């Protein structure tokens, strides 16, 4: 089986993620999926923009009252750094250095977990301090749906990368799993892209009013 | 024959289909279930027409009528037309581009099972307290107001089925981009493959807005959110936009493959290559592109303001241009050809004027200021049945007769085919032509009955009589299918004699690995080119070698079934049923567990060995 | 099918070359990452600086767009060969996304 | 715009098509028999677009028929292979440009009419008392009934819309429960009644046309709104300016029509007990909108229909009160009042039929 052939750094191909037909298909299919995800998130952003600050009773908290930029900044940094670390992981993947790849992936996962923890704390804060919940207003529904969908993506990404790491821990890199790692890292970057818009559109623009 | 396709017995066959990842078998699954839902949707249409045959009729009650109406539209669009199109995509596209299979056979199977479980879920509503009743558009204020679980069935069912369609679309995009046989450049792809490509792209971008819209609906109805609840700050127009941002591309998702089927049939039975191939490709892409910029023509009366209405009106009209290009190219394909009127060709020939009639009423509807009169009247019903039945359904029926030999190796009876064609054609025009006038005379659509004395009686009666003709036509067709399969006379590779594209170069039905050797494509209409040079088969692009095949798997079935189970949990969670949340969780465990299995258990597929393939040669083609 | 895409006959020369190229690319990545962090800082600073809303909103949206382009073209290699189809489909997605957002911020006014 | 339309009116008058079409439908209901400015322009647009479409269809048909008859495969052609033609640039240019031109002809009046119909700027003009200078009617659509409020005149009616002819009437349309759509086919195209906010538009009725149909037009709900959507009809009384003025003052001056017969007085009592919580019986109803949960019955005796659909007879009123569900499934009146005996229903009907403002 070609896909499971053993390699050395020298025989390892330049673009391992696209060296088999399966890999090529997976690579392209995943990019297409990201095209669809773009529209999916755009729809959620659009909904959020239409419903931002729409509350049944004007005494309820608006975006301006809720958000705390320091936390958001911290979360942003965690996610941005995790994007860089996953680039490092792919760098080592291309160099056929499995151990280093795994190490960087682990850091990526840890950063991602940190991000999720911050997000959960943040939500918790809104719910308890401001009674800003999923059901309290259209604003709340739209906010939690958009940010929560992103958070869900982060969580799924963490599970995905972790199980890839565990599953392949013993057998190292080959052409069967290289595309899988590559695609997972694409996914992770995409999550970062979405977050860039979330912190801009939801949080920063929310503070400007 | 290699050992994989043997065993059998009845249960064996069932198991084979439950686990299959072969695009040809998946095509058959789509055909059977899509065909079944077409009969259901048709039955619902007949009930609509019976109820409306005379004024003040009480054949069905008002509430039931709305359920039938909603399920008719939803079933026909999502559970009949879409899967039947996927049937032909699966049956034909890989063969046309000379591929062994699709890019993601597993995902292909998963797409089917998602559609299937979504469809079953939706239709179970009939037995579990009532079907959805807010129209196939399910506008938010009414659908939130609707009691019972009907709308929940709609939202959850479509969500599941829609996920299947989305991954199906991605699968075909990758297949077409990556798996074409050597020599098959983009501009040598058969037009059906081109339309499959553009349709899949439309699916990729049109379904996410529907997904989001349905999520918001599910959250509002089942989890207390306020997206469409005005009192909570929500806005119902959001739903309308999402529905139509999806809904308008959706009608082009349906019609483009229909155009593709006709673009295959017309050249074959005119014995002449498609006129203006490159402009046809261009028009297809342009229709796909414009299709995303016109959705608000369904919302002219919503109150978007004159600027939006004017922009969308003009953008909508623009679609007439690429569509017109196609119409004229089809006619000029026949011009100078040698036209033979087989059953598929009859449908193609009937399609041209019918679709033009439906298309031009579309342009009339695009005149925003006049649409204030047409909107939500029977004029609209007439328009869209002209394009959908006259376009999509004609294409599906044409494709059924045209590709039947390729899918099953037998030939549908031509005499019966023609009888049912004429019945259907006459019935169709009888039913829908007169509805234009009903609309102009002031009859709104979606009314469960009408009062006497408003001038609607005669036209409605005529319309209902037409529907009866269509019913008989369908019965003849079903009989034809059964009759043909029982007789089981096998046919050769190219039973129509004038096949032009690659699928006609291999046996009918093709072996499960398709091409023994990937063919070398030397131009448009690859098979025709070879035939004209007196060859009996395609020139191979590779020596005979081992063929890599994917393994069968039951996991797609379970992934889809898990969501089906979870949907019940989500739905009954509203009624505070104690078992609801556990069921929801169990469902997700089934799905995620199956996905997990899929990703941790390596599946490298298997190989058919060269020697076995050599064996096959001796047996020759099945005929 | 699995081909080892070597361009020169000598695998070890090829190997050295690739190593170097990868390392160089990684350097680019780090630079673009620094740029991204910088842009983020500017965006947050702009909001803290409390300037006019009409300036800040377009400005931070621009910053976000630049950042995303960096992500796509550097981290996700979108400019590399073999990314033609991904580019086309991603931009089509962006086009639909843009239309959707434009609609929802203009003609839903209630 | 106007000029253009008038020219078209001439052309359309002689168009055979128009003759064919205007034979269709009832004059009080059909879009093909326009009785107002808006409906007329819309009709002109229909005729224009239909003519263009007929041109398209005829051209397509001619080429199509020729292709089919000349090039069918005849006996002995079995072996013949026609010449394989790739395309023809000249032809392709022709069938790209001609449709574009046809569409331009259609697009210009479309855009202009769209803006014309949306022009409600006159509505914003108020006099010094804060009243609109033009006649404004607030239309509120409810599950299966319509309320018409004349905010500047202090009048509220239900089911029957009364408007003056030969004058632009401005409407503010909204819904109180689910989405409906306000449509009077022979007077002008529809506009949706949304739950989210108010839609504005105007209509104008032609007096001669109104007289032709006894001043009475049909209106319909044109958006699926539940089981009885198909029965959510209303009537439009289009009165000439003088009659309208009389109607307004009658409505403003009436206090509450008092029953005259004993039976009716009996009915009034029952009404006060069972029905008044929802139905008002004076045209001035100071309750807030949300409290006005049922049709105003002040002019019930003058209605042309019961509940918008039944002929206006006492028998039908009785039938309605006994079992509204049988006539309008899903309506909001069913089950809202206790059981009533036949006598009580009879008394109620007597009382209701006597509720008149004009004689
Ligand atoms: C397969 C499905 C299909 C197709 C192909 C079309 C094609 C078109 N449709 Fe249709 N449409 C529907 C399915 C479809 N539609 C459905 C289901 C609804 C109702 C949904 C609901 O409310 O439930 C609907 C409703 C609908 C409306 C909303 C009406 C309303 O609710 O008020 C409008 C308005 O603009 C419209 C327009 C068009 C146009 C302009 C085209 C164009 O694409 C047509 C183009 C074709 C031609 C024009 C003919 C060929 C061209 C020539 C021969 C060239 C020369 C022509 C000219 C110069 C005119 N459609
Ligand atoms: C692909 C789409 C599609 C197709 C093919 C059809 C096909 C037909 N439709 Fe349509 N229809 C819609 C999509 C479609 N429809 C949509 C989207 C709506 C709008 C819904 C809404 O407003 O929300 C609609 C609405 C609609 C209405 C308007 C109802 C209303 O507004 O109140 C009417 C009325 O005449 C109608 C009639 C028909 C008829 C007679 C057919 C015929 O062509 C059907 C022909 C088929 C048959 C006659 C099969 C009969 C089957 C048998 C005889 C065998 C039965 C046996 C077994 C099951 C064992 N349809
Ligand atoms: Cu109100 Cu339909
Ligand atoms: Cu449309």
From TrEMBL, chain A:
This is Cytochrome c oxidase subunit 3. SUPFAM superfamilies: Cytochrome c oxidase subunit III-like. Gene3D superfamilies: Cytochrome c oxidase, subunit III, four-helix bundle. GO terms for molecular function: cytochrome-c oxidase activity. It is a multi-pass membrane protein. It comes from the Bacteria. It is found in: Cell membrane. CDD domains: Ubiquinol_oxidase_III. The keyword Transmembrane applies. GO terms for cellular component: plasma membrane. Its main location: membrane. PROSITE patterns: COX3. GO terms for biological process: aerobic electron transport chain. It comes from Falsibacillus pallidus. Belongs to the cytochrome c oxidase subunit 3 family. InterPro entries: Cyt_c/ubiquinol_Oxase_su3, Cyt_c_oxidase-like_su3, Cyt_c_oxidase_su3-like_sf, Cyt_c_oxidase_su3_a-hlx, Ubiquinol_oxase_su3_dom. The chain crosses the membrane at residues 28-51, 71-91, 103-121, 141-166, 186-206. Keywords: Cell membrane, Membrane, Transmembrane, Transmembrane helix.
Automatic annotation (TrEMBL), chain B:
It is found in: Cell membrane. Pfam families: COX1. Coiled coil: none annotated. SUPFAM superfamilies: Cytochrome c oxidase subunit I-like. Pathway: Energy metabolism; oxidative phosphorylation. It catalyses: 4 Fe(II)-[cytochrome c] + O2 + 8 H(+)(in) = 4 Fe(III)-[cytochrome c] + 2 H2O + 4 H(+)(out). Its cofactor is heme; Cu(2+). GO terms for molecular function: cytochrome-c oxidase activity; heme binding; metal ion binding. Keywords: Cell membrane, Copper, Electron transport, Heme, Iron, Membrane, Metal-binding, Respiratory chain, Translocase, Transmembrane, Transmembrane helix, Transport. GO terms for cellular component: plasma membrane. InterPro entries: Cyt_c_oxase-like_su1_dom, Cyt_c_oxase-like_su1_sf, Cyt_C_Oxase_1, Cyt_c_Oxase_su1_BS, Cyt_c_oxidase_su1_bac. Residues 9-522 form the Cytochrome oxidase subunit I profile domain. It is an enzyme of class 7 (translocase). This is Cytochrome c oxidase subunit 1. It comes from Falsibacillus pallidus. The lineage of its organism: Bacteria, Bacillati, Bacillota, Bacilli, Bacillales.
Automatic annotation (TrEMBL), chain C:
One of its GO terms (cellular component) is cytochrome o ubiquinol oxidase complex. Keywords: Cell membrane, Membrane, Transmembrane, Transmembrane helix. The chain crosses the membrane at residues 28-49, 55-76, 88-109. Pfam families: COX4_pro. The keyword Membrane applies. One of its GO terms (biological process) is aerobic electron transport chain. It is a multi-pass membrane protein. InterPro entries: Cyt_c_oxidase_su4_bacillaceae (IPR014257), Cyt_c_oxidase_su4_prok (IPR005171), Cytochrome_c_oxidase_bac_sub4 (IPR050968). It is found in: Cell membrane. The keyword Transmembrane helix applies. One of its GO terms (molecular function) is cytochrome bo3 ubiquinol oxidase activity. Belongs to the cytochrome c oxidase bacterial subunit 4 family. This is Cytochrome c oxidase subunit 4. It comes from Falsibacillus pallidus.
Automatic annotation (TrEMBL), chain D:
Pfam families: COX2, COX2_TM, Cytochrom_C. Its main location: membrane. Its EC number is 7.1.1.9. It comes from Falsibacillus pallidus. Belongs to the cytochrome c oxidase subunit 2 family. The chain crosses the membrane at residues 45-71, 92-118. This is Cytochrome c oxidase subunit 2. Keywords: Cell membrane, Copper, Electron transport, Heme, Iron, Membrane, Metal-binding, Respiratory chain, Signal, Translocase, Transmembrane, Transmembrane helix, Transport. Subunits I and II form the functional core of the enzyme complex. Electrons originating in cytochrome c are transferred via heme a and Cu(A) to the binuclear center formed by heme a3 and Cu(B). Residues 132-250 form the Cytochrome oxidase subunit II copper A binding domain. Residues 23-121 form the Cytochrome oxidase subunit II transmembrane region profile domain. SUPFAM superfamilies: Cupredoxins (SSF49503), Cytochrome c (SSF46626), Cytochrome c oxidase subunit II-like, transmembrane region (SSF81464). The keyword ATP-binding does not apply. InterPro entries: CcO_II, CcO_II-like_C, Copper_CuA, Cupredoxin, Cyt_c-like_dom, Cyt_c-like_dom_sf, Cyt_c_oxidase_su2, Cyt_c_oxidase_su2_TM_dom. GO terms for biological process: ATP synthesis coupled electron transport.
């Amino acid at each position: 089986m070609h896909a499971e052939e053993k390699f050395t750094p020298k025989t390892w191909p330049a673009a391992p993620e696209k060296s088999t037909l399966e890999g090529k298909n997976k690579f392209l299919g995943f990019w297409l999926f990201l095209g669809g995800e773009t529209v999916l998130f755009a729809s959620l952003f659009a909904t959020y923009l239409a419903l931002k600050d729409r509350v049944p009773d004007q005494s309820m908290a608006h975006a301006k009252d809720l958000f705390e930029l320091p936390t958001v900044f911290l979360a942003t940094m965690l996610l941005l750094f995790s994007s860089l670390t996953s680039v490092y992981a792919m760098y080592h993947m291309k160099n056929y250095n499995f151990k280093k790849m795994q190490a960087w992936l682990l850091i990526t996962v840890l950063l991602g977990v940190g991000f999720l923890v911050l997000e959960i704390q943040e939500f918790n804060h809104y719910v308890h301090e401001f009674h800003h919940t999923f059901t309290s207003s259209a604003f709340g529904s739209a906010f939690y749906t958009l940010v929560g969908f992103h958070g869900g993506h982060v969580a799924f990404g963490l599970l995905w990368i972790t199980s890839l790491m565990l599953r392949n821990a013993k057998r190292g890199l080959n052409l069967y799993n290289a595309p899988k790692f590559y695609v997972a890292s694409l996914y992770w970057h995409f999550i970062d892209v979405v977050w860039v818009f979330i912190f801009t559109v939801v949080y920063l623009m929310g503070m400007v009013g | 024959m290699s050992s994989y396709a043997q065993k059998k017995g009845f249960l064996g066959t069932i198991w084979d289909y439950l686990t299959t990842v072969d695009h040809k078998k998946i095509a058959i699954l789509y055909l059977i279930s899509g065909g079944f839902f077409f009969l259901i949707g048709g039955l619902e249409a007949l009930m609509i027409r019976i109820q409306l045959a005379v004024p003040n009729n009480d054949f069905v009650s008002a509430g039931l009528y709305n359920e039938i109406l909603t399920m008719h539209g939803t079933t026909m669009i999502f559970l009949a037309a879409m899967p039947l199109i996927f049937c032909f995509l699966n049956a034909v596209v890989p063969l046309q581009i000379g591929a062994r299979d699709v890019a993601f056979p597993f995902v292909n199977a998963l797409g089917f099972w998602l559609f299937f479980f979504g469809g079953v879920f939706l239709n179970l509503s009939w037995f579990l307290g009532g079907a959805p009743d807010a129209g196939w558009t399910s506008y938010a204020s009414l659908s939130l107001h609707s009691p019972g679980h009907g709308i929940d069935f709609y939202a959850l069912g479509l969500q599941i089925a829609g996920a299947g369609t989305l991954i199906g679309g991605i699968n075909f995009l990758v297949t077409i981009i990556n798996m074409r046989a050597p020599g098959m450049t983009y501009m040598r792809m058969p037009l059906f493959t081109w339309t499959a490509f553009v349709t899949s792209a439309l699916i990729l971008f049109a379904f996410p807005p529907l997904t989001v819209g349905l999520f918001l609906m599910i959250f509002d109805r089942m989890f207390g959110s306020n997206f469409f609840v005005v009192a909570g700050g929500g806005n119902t127009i959001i739903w309308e936009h999402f529905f139509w941002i999806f809904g308008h591309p959706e009608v082009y998702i349906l019609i483009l493959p229909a155009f593709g089927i006709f673009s295959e049939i017309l050249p074959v039975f005119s014995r002449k290559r498609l006129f203006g191939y490159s402009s046809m490709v261009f028009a297809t892409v342009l229709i796909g592109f414009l299709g995303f910029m016109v959705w608000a023509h369904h919302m002219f009366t919503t109150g978007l303001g004159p600027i939006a209405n004017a922009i969308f009106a003009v953008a909508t009209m623009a679609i007439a241009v690429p569509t017109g290009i196609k119409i004229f190219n089809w006619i000029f394909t026949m011009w100078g050809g040698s036209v033979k009127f087989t059953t598929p060709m009859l449908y193609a020939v009937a399609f041209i004027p019918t679709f033009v009639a439906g298309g031009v009423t579309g342009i009339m509807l695009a005149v925003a200021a006049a649409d204030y009169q047409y909107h939500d009247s029977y004029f609209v019903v007439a328009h869209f049945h002209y394009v959908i039945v006259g376009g999509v359904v004609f294409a599906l029926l044409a494709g059924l007769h045209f590709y039947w030999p390729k899918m099953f190796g037998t030939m549908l009876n031509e005499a019966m085919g023609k009888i049912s064609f004429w019945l259907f054609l006459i019935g169709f025009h009888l039913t829908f032509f007169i509805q234009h006038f009903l609309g102009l005379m002031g009859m709104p659509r979606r009314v469960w009955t009408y009062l006497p004395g408003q001038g609607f009686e005669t036209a409605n009666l005529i319309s209902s009589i037409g529907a009866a003709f269509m019913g008989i036509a369908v019965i003849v067709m079903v009989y034809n299918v059964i009759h043909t399969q029982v007789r089981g006379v096998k046919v050769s590779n190219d039973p129509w004699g004038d096949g032009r594209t690659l699928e006609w170069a291999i046996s009918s039905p093709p072996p499960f690995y398709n091409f023994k050797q990937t063919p070398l494509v030397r131009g448009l209409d690859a098979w025709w080119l070879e035939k004209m040079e007196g060859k009996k088969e395609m020139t191979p692009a590779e020596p005979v070698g081992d063929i890599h095949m994917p393994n069968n798997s039951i996991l797609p079935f379970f992934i889809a079934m898990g969501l089906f189970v979870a949907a019940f949990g989500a739905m009954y969670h509203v009624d505070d049923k104690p078992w609801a949340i556990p069921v929801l969780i169990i469902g997700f465990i089934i799905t995620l567990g199956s996905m997990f299995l899929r990703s941790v258990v390596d599946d490298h597929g298997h190989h058919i060995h060269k020697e076995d393939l050599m064996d096959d040669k001796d047996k020759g083609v099945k005929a | 099918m699995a081909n080892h895409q070597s361009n020169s006959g000598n695998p070890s020369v090829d190997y050295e070359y690739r190593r170097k190229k990868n390392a160089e690319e990684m350097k680019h990545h780090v630079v673009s990452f620094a740029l991204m962090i910088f842009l983020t800082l500017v965006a947050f600073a702009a909001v803290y600086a409390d300037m006019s809303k009409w300036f800040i909103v377009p400005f931070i949206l621009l910053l976000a767009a630049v950042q995303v382009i960096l992500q796509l073209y550097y981290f996700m290699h979108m400019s590399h060969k073999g990314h033609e189809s991904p580019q086309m489909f991603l931009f089509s997605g962006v086009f639909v996304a843009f239309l959707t957002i434009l609609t929802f911020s203009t003609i839903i006014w209630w | 715009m106007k000029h253009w339309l008038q020219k078209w009116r001439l052309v359309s008058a002689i168009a055979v098509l128009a003759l064919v079409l205007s034979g269709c439908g009832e004059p009080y209901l059909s879009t093909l028999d326009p009785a107002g400015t808006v409906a007329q322009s819309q009709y002109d647009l229909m005729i224009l677009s239909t003519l263009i479409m007929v041109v398209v269809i005829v051209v397509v048909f001619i080429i199509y028929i020729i292709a089919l008859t000349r090039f069918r495969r005849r006996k002995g052609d079995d072996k013949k292979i026609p010449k394989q033609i790739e395309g023809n640039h000249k032809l392709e240019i022709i069938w790209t440009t001609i449709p574009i031109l046809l569409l331009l002809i259609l697009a210009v009046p479309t855009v202009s009419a769209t803006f014309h119909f949306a022009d409600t700027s006159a509505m914003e003009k108020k006099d010094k008392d804060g009243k609109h200078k033009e006649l404004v009617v607030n239309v509120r659509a409810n599950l299966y009934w319509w309320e018409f409020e004349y905010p500047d005149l202090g009048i509220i009616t239900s089911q029957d819309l009364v408007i003056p002819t030969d004058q632009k009437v401005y409407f503010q349309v909204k819904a109180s429960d689910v989405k409906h759509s306000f449509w009077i086919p022979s007077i002008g195209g529809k506009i949706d009644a949304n739950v989210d906010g108010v839609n504005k538009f105007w209509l104008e009725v032609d007096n001669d046309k109104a007289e032709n149909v006894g001043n009475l037009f049909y209106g319909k709900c044109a958006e699926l709104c539940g089981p009885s959507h198909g029965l959510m009809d209303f009537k439009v009384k289009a009165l000439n300016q003088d009659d309208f003025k009389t109607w307004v003052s009658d409505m403003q001056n009436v206090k509450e029509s008092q029953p005259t017969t004993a039976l009716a007085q009996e009915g009034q009592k029952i009404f006060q007990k069972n029905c008044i919580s929802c139905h008002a019986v004076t045209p001035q109803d100071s309750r807030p909108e949300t409290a006005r949960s049922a049709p105003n019955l002040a002019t019930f005796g003058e209605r042309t229909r019961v509940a918008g659909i039944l002929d206006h007879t006492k028998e039908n009123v009785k039938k309605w009160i006994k079992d509204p569900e049988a006539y309008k499934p899903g309506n909001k009146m069913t089950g809202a009042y206790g059981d009533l005996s036949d006598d009580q229903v009879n008394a109620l009907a007597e009382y209701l039929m006597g509720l008149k403002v004009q004689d």
